[in-house]
Amino acid sequence: MCQFPFPLLLPTLDTPKCTLLLWAMRDIVRKWRLHSVAESRGFREESLVLTSMPTISFVRMGSCSFSKSQLLNEVLSPSQQHHDFFIHRDMESGNFLRKIADGLIEISWYFPGGTENSDLFPEPLAVTNLCGDIESHWLQFSFLAEVSSAVFIVTESIDEREYALLSSLKESSCKYYFILNCKNKKPKESLGFLNKLASVLKLSKSQLLVKDRTMNNAGFVKKVQSTIETIVNSSLKTVSLEAMAVTAHDLGIQVDEDCQACQCASKYTEEITAEIRNGAKYKREMLSLRGDQWKNLAKLEKEMCRMKRQGDMATEDYKLR
Predict the structure, then answer these.
(1) What fold is seen in the domain 6-260?
(2) Is the pLDDT of residue 2 over 60?
(3) pTM over 0.85
(4) Which of 119, 134, 121, 110 is nearest to 231 (CA)?
(5) Structural domain boundaries of the chain?
(6) Helical residues (DSSP H) of 122-186, grouped into ranges
(7) Which of 217, 246, 281, 285 has an alpha carbon within 20 to 30 A of 117's alpha carbon?
(8) How many CB atoms neighbour CB 120 within 10 A?
């Protein structure tokens, strides 16, 4: 409930290069419950960097009158609840002018609790959000196309130039979904180009999500949630954050772990953990004060504290008399 997105791909000021922040998320461990083990009430706990899961990405093409980040918050929020995971322009302090966020890719996650009635999706999934227009940040968009199970392209209009740009994606193996908000002056023209794109990119009807005046916001959010659930249930493509680093290198994107300090820390960590064969035995031998001795010490300190408090209370009572 207190979840917020992390910067995944950080743009570098004054240069076209980006940096994948992998080392920064190495220590994150999450726990969740799958529906398949809900009856046994068993949890699954893993490192977020090493866990493979479907990645759903949201990007924007052109300017939009509605906030993509706000739509994401509504899609990821349970019924009758609302959480601002992603910052958007209609929230408090969300309307400040961007100075360094253009080109940033944020990442957040959804983890099920094992309850079918309240869980939005049955499996864990990663959700990424590209800040800025894809035309200005094609490298970041290309990265998402490589690592994502599906990419949702949010737009309000498609003209000849944008049609030509998107037609270049026909060789991509990624599955694209279009969210078209029909609020522009030429909705028929945009729908025409969208139908032409459907033929070029071999899109099915379910991959074209059109929000017109007859559909309210709640109904459209349900439609997007249903589409994502279908992707999660049918997607064979899963990727971990660690595997994303390989794709980043292929595209010429820097990875924070490439620096010497991170390499040295990783080397020392491997040297220490290489000696560990039995976790419980290692703790007893190397961390002896954290076992029974620590428990006994805590018990003694508690008793001493209780005795001190009782003595203080007896002294106060004597003074009052």
Answers:
(1) Rossmann fold (3.40.50)
(2) no
(3) no
(4) 121
(5) 6-260, 277-320
(6) 138-147, 160-167
(7) 217
(8) 16
